[in-house]
Design goal:
Number of helices of chain A: 10
Low-confidence stretches of chain A: none
Strand content of chain A: 15-25%
Order of helices and strands of chain A: EEEEEEEEEEEEHEHEHHHEEHHEHEHH
Oligomer: homodimer
Helix content of chain A: 25-40%
CATH topology of the largest domain in chain A: Rossmann fold
CATH architecture of the largest domain in chain A: 3-Layer(aba) Sandwich
Structural class of chain A: alpha/beta
Radius of gyration of chain A: 20 Å
Largest sheet of chain A: 8 strands, mixed
CATH superfamily of the largest domain in chain A: Alpha/Beta hydrolase fold, catalytic domain
Number of strands of chain A: 18
CATH class of the largest domain in chain A: Alpha Beta
Shape of chain A: globular
Mean pLDDT of chain A: 96
Chain lengths: 365, 365
Amino acid sequence: MSVSTTVARFDTLALDCGQRLAPVQVAYETYGELNTQRSNAILILHAFSGDAHAAGISAETGKPGWWDNMIGPGKAFDTRCYYVISSNVLGGCSGTTGPSSIDPGTGSPYGSNFPPVSIADMVRLQQLLTESLGISRLLCVSGGSMGGMQALQWAASYPDKVASVIPIATTHRHSAQQIAFNEVGRQAILADPDFNRGDFYGGKYPERGLAVARMVGHITYMSDGSMREKFGRRRRKSSGESDLFEVESYLRYRGGQFVSRFDANSYLVISRAMDTFDMTADCETLEDCFTRGDTRFLVLSFTSDWLYPSYQSQEIVRALRSRNRDVAYIELESNYGHDAFLLEAGEQTSLIRGFLENTFQRLAA
Amino acid sequence: MSVSTTVARFDTLALDCGQRLAPVQVAYETYGELNTQRSNAILILHAFSGDAHAAGISAETGKPGWWDNMIGPGKAFDTRCYYVISSNVLGGCSGTTGPSSIDPGTGSPYGSNFPPVSIADMVRLQQLLTESLGISRLLCVSGGSMGGMQALQWAASYPDKVASVIPIATTHRHSAQQIAFNEVGRQAILADPDFNRGDFYGGKYPERGLAVARMVGHITYMSDGSMREKFGRRRRKSSGESDLFEVESYLRYRGGQFVSRFDANSYLVISRAMDTFDMTADCETLEDCFTRGDTRFLVLSFTSDWLYPSYQSQEIVRALRSRNRDVAYIELESNYGHDAFLLEAGEQTSLIRGFLENTFQRLAA
């Protein structure tokens, strides 16, 4: 199916930092049809560097969406039954207001003037979007990694507006190690003289720093085992330089590819939003975040994911169970590391499909 | 005890790459006394960024050595019984010939002209050193991480010259993930415009790239758990910028500190030596590397070391056992990650002390 990204515009959005973005816009795609009761809408939220194009073939680029193996007719998020909305995040660079957007106050890109945004700010904008689409209650909110953080925040911010949440390979707050990896990426960008304190639009882009940042990311998304399988110690013939290890040329390639589609300021803003995300900051304990509403939860993690290890998902499950919330948790076997949430469609599909059917039937009953 | 680093000079050293370094020098320290039989000498080899100053208080800097908790009177490597030699590595920047040394052919620092060196080259230079000190057979060679690689290479290159080896938290060849982390560090350095293709001596040093490289390293040296204990999500008041996470200011501090004592070209040369180290390259199998000699082995690894995971030590142990070699293996409980080999003196001490005593008695018998 050929799909196009749409943009919704709103007059203003109040941010946690106290500032406002006015106007603000959000890029999104939809798949499937909203039923007459408006009860079959599912919101899908992407990870750090994703965009609104989650499924189908993009009419603009011809490329499949980042979760095309999970969203579509007969898939985990079955578009024959459900109306799926995929929203890009605030602070990004793929159609939603972010540092590269024009600041109406100056007529130039925000650059270093873009305010810090939070995961809750992202969710607030998504709520404006779903409301504008005529949906007062979502059947489900789901996403992996940072998408899972947003899904959890939905349950905390709008417990009456979301019937179920599927947070995958995620956490309610970053560990020191997760912050540390993000910080290395940020420092690589800041070290690039072309970064120019964030005001590089119209000049040279800090491509070298951004590429290094992305390389670090890619290592953390894979597992020791999946890297061994994919690359081992194999060499690749290279011209000029002595033969590189395949893993080296892979990382260089992916780093170089990334700079053509991602904005260095968005990297800083979004990674900071992840690091400062802490569901216990507004509540006494994590348990207290889940006192309201009757949202159901399906929590998934993967055995080889060392970036978002299973114990972090289990912390969420423990908090929910202690409040007698309806929560199922599965740790899925996988060798793919953190990337598993993008790659392991098989087992995720059967779990998610059953959970959604059950949730839908309960609501109808 | 106050100690000083000494330098030994040799006319020439043939390298695996086919080139020669002439002359070549190596920085080293010694602790304790060589006995009259010259049978109590132990060679200690440092990790990636270490130097010859392993024990005691440096007469130059006033600082303790990097393994001062392990080397000294009554310690694991007991200087009341043993003569301990600590050698700096070839390619480094702490007194041994490396990229910042003067190339006698040009009168300027080698810089980008410094030849690639191997772990076996480092060991060859150490053998010149120990020979010049009048030692024909070492009681033991030991080191952690890259020091462990050198120790293993000693057993393969000079099986008759080393009675025992204690490789700690190491591997006989890097995995794709280990290569990948090194490659990110290299790319961070190469991305720094001040790197100037390696010929930066006399100009600005590529400090920003080198600092980012070091930050990546520090994350891999710690464990998720030790970072949580040490930093958690605590913030540190900072001037100007919004409050940083403690882990961020720690990484920035350590990165900044590193550039004052380490050379960017040494980073490239030594990390490449680690990545290309592969004991199976010269043998059919790892087992075949250990057919000669009667060197005894004590192999140590640490539970939370995810950079050099225990399975890598176990591969070595399996190969040695399959050749009926005298090998003991202990996986030590620790929360410190790869840094454990520097920090967990207690349990290492009892194991190493007994192993050395036993080896010494067997030789005397």
